[in-house]
Amino acid sequence: MRRLAFAAAFALAAAVTTIPAVGPALAETPADTLVVAKNIDDIITLDPAEVFEFSGGEVIANIYDRVMQYEPEDLTTLVGGVAESYEISDDGKTIVFKIRAGQKFHSGNPVRAEDVAFSLQRVIKLNKTPSFILSQLGWTPENVEGMVVAEDESTVRVTIGADFSPGLVLNALSAGVGSVVDKELVLSHEKDGDLGYDWLKNNSAGSGPFVLKTWKANELVMLEANADYRAGAPKLKRVVLQHIPEPSAQRLLIEKGDADMVRDLQPDQIKGLAGNADVVVNNYPKAALIYIGLNAQHPILGKPEVREAVRYMIDYQGMADSFLAGQYKVHQAVWPSGLWASYDETPFHFDLDKAKALLDQAGVGNGGFKIAIDTLAQPPYSEIAQSVQQSLSKLGIESEITLSEGKTLWPKYRARKHELIVAQWSPDYVDPHSNTDSFAHNPDNREEAGLTGKLAWRNAWSDPEVNALTEKAAQEVDLEKRRQLYLDLQKLVMEVSPYAVMFQLNEQVAMQKNVTGFVSGANFDLVFYRNVAKE
Amino acid sequence: MSQEARSSAGAGGSLLLSGAARRSANVLFTVALTFVGLTAVTFVIGRVMPNDPVLAIVGDRAPKAVYEAMRLELGLDKPIIQQYGIYLLKILQGDLGKSIMTGRDVIEDVARFFPATIELATVATLLGALVGVPMGVVAAVRQGRPTDHLVRILGLFGYSVPIFWLGLMALLVFYAKLGWLPGPGRIEVYYDGIVDSRTGFILIDSALQGEWEVFRNALSHIVLPAAMLATFALAYIARMTRSFMLDQLSQEYVLTARVKGLSEVQVIWRHVFRNVLVQLITIIGLTYASLLEGSVLTETVFAWPGIGQYITQSLFNADLNAVIGGTLAVGICFVGINMLSDVLYRIVDPRAR
Description:
A: 535 residues, 11-stranded mixed β-sheet, disordered N terminus
């Protein structure tokens, strides 16, 4: 009863907050400051060797320059960050980077090859979660000092110990772990050989367009412009990410002019802004995907026909047009649309008759079994799970939805204890290998292998043909051939895998009409504030 | 103790002393017991929760080796009793550990988040008591009349309306529509860093440092969330005051006082009200204590960086050190408020001395 009352009250609150909130006078944020209202409670560290959260990734992307990076002016071309140029050896196993002259860290220290080598070595030695992006290159704490070497003041030689395309390596160096930290400053705060880890969680030592002034968990992040930035000083002096967890409150702030930008509005709140001439809503396609994972160990869900039937029992367009309105689009391949080598075909559509025929083919058309659906206790996952449940019910299959917090759901998923899961995935860096390695590659499906980071292992699925194709694509040097391999791989995964990839995120950002220059690229950490201006 | 000893003045003094010592020992024992109980219960709950503290740190994509390394670093491979023992020992040394969520020492976090909640709860309780007590008294005196019905309806509203909804409505009306009060947050973000945090209470710190603009801004920010919490406090205090007053008004001494010719004001405020004061102190204390840990929804709606939000967020993130640290701080405050209530009893009621 209390829950019902709470739900009713919440619905009423949401309904009332969709009424245009026009106060007597609009407030204004300072002209030299960008105030962004956003839920930032996911930030748990700002050390680039450890950051793996969306908000944290966004913050460090604006504080640190990376070895390689995408620039806000052109999100399609990978260019040197602190590296001015690079040379790849004939066998593709060695890359020599030349560091740009005249770059300085926020501390005033020069950016040297030694800093680059230290930063990459530090990631491997600290061995935090995102370190796998670099350790997959064959680097270990024991060998990394020999694999990443500062040859002189401005030259770094990187040796690749794994069979990987140099293109993939360069993309991996554009991830957050490719951030270059100020060795001298970091080591001056070292405690008990921790390579400055304890200090760098809450401080910054970068050379990027902004300096971290404050991070107060659950309160705000304040960034100050670096006037000496190599590409020119940012247009605004300050960027403040204010922690406003409640989307309804974010909407009030943007309408009153107390925030220049809000990032977490729900579709209803976006709709409610339509009549406000002072606020514009911009769309930014993101690489995050929502998919269904089916545990291949399950006696029924493990059948190929049943997997295919699931792909036909999803009302893709119905959901995209209703409760997902504007925030997700239909996408069915494991590498998102809009990125290099994406496969944009959407062969599956809502067809319950076909799904029924496939279930009959699998010998389970008469139902009589129950499926457990696991997902996150937050929109839109719960709604998607309900839609799947409805389809299952129309096919005579009983199902039960369990909604959980991520910290409860992920251990279950990693332990392969789920049956059908509705979850999200976002690439770690902008290379198709980031997704295919997780979705498709599972070289050891045994329980004891514990490849918990890979979705294929979590869903207990291993296909030798798919594994081989994933490895081949990762190794291919020729760009065009590599692209074709990924297209083939995505098509194959679409047909044989235990996944039904459904949607790709479209971030809707509401901002004051005088705000220009905001760039939010496909990946979670490609968010740039340095060109933002208030006109 | 013998009669002789009791009769002598010196012995009387020592009796008083031993009485005080006994009371202090009792208090200390209660505090110690509460402390051990709190840590034990929170620790066990934290360990049996399905949330995985390792994943909270390393993320769900962590390879097995990284996961295992962190599990060992957190000492989760040890028996739970041993883990608790280690934790208790650290607490006694003043080390509450580090928070996963903030990367800082939990003591530092508590010192930052708790004052924000205390500030909010104090203003809310003051508002609730200053308005709720007279409301309850008037309702009791005018029992059955329209004023009484109005107070009861207001009480019912304040007690039953979801504070989350009320907060959003208040923001919509007083911030968005009328523009009388500022929006969410403890202070405008541009004022951040102007005032040094000495006590953690922004109103006190800004006043002490003569930053009156910051003080005004902080004061204007506290009005709405405090008023929302006060609605709940007021409803409860008014309802209980009415009930206590009605109970006393039916006593014979009230009739005697009236027969003696005392004015109604004297009867109500000098005699009846004084007799309900002890009970009122108890419920005001309890209300204050409940606001200290129960204001999480208000804190969420108003983006108020308080201890309620900190503990809740920590629970979702399996941030055990933060959960226990925050709970301990609230628990210690509970004990403190109880002790304060005891002291106040003695002041207002000579029989309790």
